[in-house]
Amino acid sequence: MRWDWHDRLHLLGLVVVVAAMAWLLLAGAPGDSGARQASGIERAMERELAYQARAAFLQQIYGPVEELRRQGQAQQALLMLEQLNRNYAGEAHGYILKGLILHEQGVLEEAVASFVQGLRLNGDYVDQRSPLSERARIQNAVDEGLTTLGARARANPDNLSVAAALRNVYYLQSRLAGGCE
Amino acid sequence: MNEILPVRRGAWLRFLFPMMTLVLAVVLGGCEKAPSGPVYRIGYMNCNSEAETMHRFLPLTRYLEKELGVRFEAIPVDTQDFVERYEQGEFDFTHTNAILYVILKEEQNLELLATEKRGQYGSRTAGALVVRRDSDIQTLEDVRGKRLIFGPQLALQGYAAQYDLLLKAGIDPELDLAYYAIPHGSFKHEKVIYGAWFGAYDVAAAPVLDLEVMIAEGKIEADDFRVLAQSEVMPYCTFGAAPRVDPKLVDRFRQALLKLKPEDTVEMDGERIKVLNAALIDGFEQLLDSDYDINRDLLRRVNMPPYQEF
Question: What chain A residue is nearest to B113 in terms of C-alpha separation?
Fold first, then answer.
């Protein structure tokens, strides 16, 4: 078989590309395990920084709501949340805060529904290690829901709305137990 | 030749007839069937105005027709006329506020179907007494001798709840205020809130839901007002059925409401419209009649229908 000038040109191009890729691999990869470890730490730090920045941002945005809640002005806090929703609709932190306030007001079904919406967006709120964790309060809502909504569902087995509310409680229970979506 | 021709013509017809039948079936199957039979009348209590009521509830009425396969007529009704027109047998189904539901339940045995969900408290909301942020009024006690604006008299969370809050605080609205007023015309709840905002009144009796909606729409800011006092949360607007309506139809009506999802649409005037979005509703909930006992207790305390005593 004979190689004409066209085949030779392709072969040369192929060799150049393979050489370039090999060089990139060697030059781009860390030279030893120490460098690899350093890169890993860097990534972990970046993740941590991003997490801290998010927590600080949420504190800044939702701080006034938290403050009103601490002062016992639950309705004013809910109205402030409504205003924040104009810019941050669908933020998990807003749903969790709303759930906490509604639960404190005794509006259990809506509180549970709000926790569900928040946790579907971000599971950090039931993670014990997370600074955002509201695990204990969500557990309280679940305990109360199992008792009161459970009794209501048993007394009204054909009521679809009560059944839906109880399903929300079960969902929270599963997330607290470590279940995933 | 003469013997063959009739056979050919018959074969052609035998092919054409099933094909035409198939085409007709496909065409008819693609059309939405118009319901037939008696017309059931749904009385919709005007929330803000007749035009708004029809804009909100016509798509829902078309959805119910489609789901149940029966004809419905949507009728906007003034709140003050509702009970009398219901008593005259004008409506088979009702959509009213929670006071009218209690009146019709107690006096006409109206059956509870479903309660609409809207806002932060779902199927419930509260009544609040609010003042401008810069007001000198800090507590309910400070309301004595001030100007107050209530919502319409048959509004549970716009009138009765706040009347009750004042009575509980030892303030008789009939004796202890400088004066109180009730706005005229449409969009009364918004007028109440703007009445305090523009300083015409010192205190406003606002349903929490209306505050939420006005904030969400950017009409007011959350910290424009301070909440002086707030009632418990109580069931809100409610669908009911007259006891004469076939129980099977009533049950199907309820199921159709409960299964409504935000993505459900109807075709109206050449447009595809989202039913819940048009109705300004988040969904429906199946409450129990006993959930309305909190409303009943409140109405008894403020001496309002159906428990009014003279």
Answer: A159
B44 and B115 in a single domain? The answer is: yes
B207, B71: one domain: no
Read off the pLDDT of residues B228-278 as tens digits, 9 standing for 90 and up: 999 999 999 999 999 999 999 999 999 999 999 999 999 999 999 999 999
**Do residues B226 and B257 both lie within one domain?**
no
- Count the domains in chain A: 1
**Residue contact B233–A105, C-beta within 8 A:** yes
B294 contacts in chain A (CB < 8 Å): none
Q: Which stretches of chain B sit within 8 Å of chain A by CB?
A: 120-122, 124, 126, 128, 208, 211-212, 215-216, 218, 221-223, 226-227, 230, 233, 258, 285-288
Q: Which residues of B touch A159 (CB under 8 A)?
A: 286, 288
Instruction: Tell me the CA distances in angstroms from B264 to B33, B86, B238, B275, B276, one per residue in order.
Output: 18, 30, 20, 6, 8
Are B141 and B192 within one domain? yes
ipTM of the complex: 0.85
The CA-to-CA distance between both ends of chain B, in Å, stands at: 102
Which of B93, B96, B87, B132 is CA-nearest to residue B226? B132
Residue A22 located in a structural domain: no
How many angstroms separate the Cα of B79 from the Cα of each of A19, A164, B9? 84, 32, 70
Residues B61 and B210 both lie in one domain: no
Question: The domain that contains B174 carries what CATH number?
Answer: 3.40.190.10
